[in-house]
Design brief:
The protein has 5 helices and 11 strands. It is of the alpha+beta class. It has one domain (4-207): 3-Layer(aba) Sandwich (Aminopeptidase), CATH 3.40.630. It has an 8-stranded mixed sheet, sandwiched between helices. The chain has a 3-stranded antiparallel sheet with strand order 8-9-11, with no helix packed on it. The longest helix is centred in the middle third of the chain and has 12 residues, at 97-108. The protein is globular and about 45 Å long.
Length: 227
């Protein structure tokens, strides 16, 4: 069912509204714009419309990694873990995206989700939108490498026979967590189960990427193939 929120009085002139949108609508908006250049798992997607034009999209989905889900609050809570995996706007749109994300989170409280999201240090992102939405900051992931193929497939989606002998660098990312529920007791239990320390928010200068430009892979030679 479509969920609609009309913006507050100062936005009525522009008729801004937030709607839950279909998967295909989200994909058509994201794929030409987001620097990742691929579409993740999407369970819920929301659009922010102004004058009936889609200006921003936010999507949530189940992380592909079971260890990521277990690593937030343990095995017993892993089924509740979802990721805010895409947030993108059109280039000329200047409304604060924190307002959009907050509205999405309010709608998702009925789902009882533990939401994790990441800000890529390789893109000079610090997560200021998540900070404005009161996410918990839990530190950075470690930089690592993944298998790489010329086709650009994710390492989970091809056979070992397709391995090229090269690996791509996955940059360190800031990790944010948000307990999205109406249930205060459940929220306290999740907080007590959190596997990471709660840290001060990172600060620094952000750098915006150019819409439509995909991030380029940094490729290294696999140690197994070195002479």
């Amino acid at each position: 069912m479509k969920v609609v929120e009309t913006m507050n009085s100062r936005d009525k002139k522009s008729r801004g509204k937030i709607e839950e949108i279909k998967y295909d609508v989200a994909v058509q908006f994201l794929l030409p714009k987001h620097y990742a250049g691929r579409i993740p798992s999407i369970s819920k997607a929301f659009g922010w419309y102004f004058n009936n034009e889609l200006m921003a999209v936010c999507t949530f989905g189940k992380p592909a990694s079971p260890s990521l889900c277990r690593g937030i609050c343990g095995e017993s809570c892993s089924a509740n873990v979802y990721e805010l995996n895409r947030l993108c706007r059109v280039d000329e749109f200047t409304e604060p995206l924190s307002r959009f994300v907050s509205a999405c989170l309010r709608r998702l409280r009925i789902e009882n989700w533990i939401i994790v999201s990441y800000s890529d240090t390789g893109m000079n992102h610090h997560g200021y939108i998540y900070q404005a939405c009161n996410f918990i900051y839990t530190g950075q992931t470690k930089e690592r490498t993944d298998k790489w193929t010329p086709s650009g497939k994710h390492s989970r989606h091809y056979l070992n026979s397709e391995q090229s002998g090269f690996r791509k660098v996955r940059t360190s990312k800031h990790r944010y967590v948000y307990f999205c529920t109406f249930d205060k007791k459940l929220k306290r239990r999740w907080m007590d189960s959190l596997k990471y320390s709660v840290l001060d928010y990172p600060k620094g200068d952000n750098k915006n990427y150019v819409l439509g430009e995909y991030i380029k892979d940094k490729i290294v030679i696999s140690k197994a193939t070195e002479c």
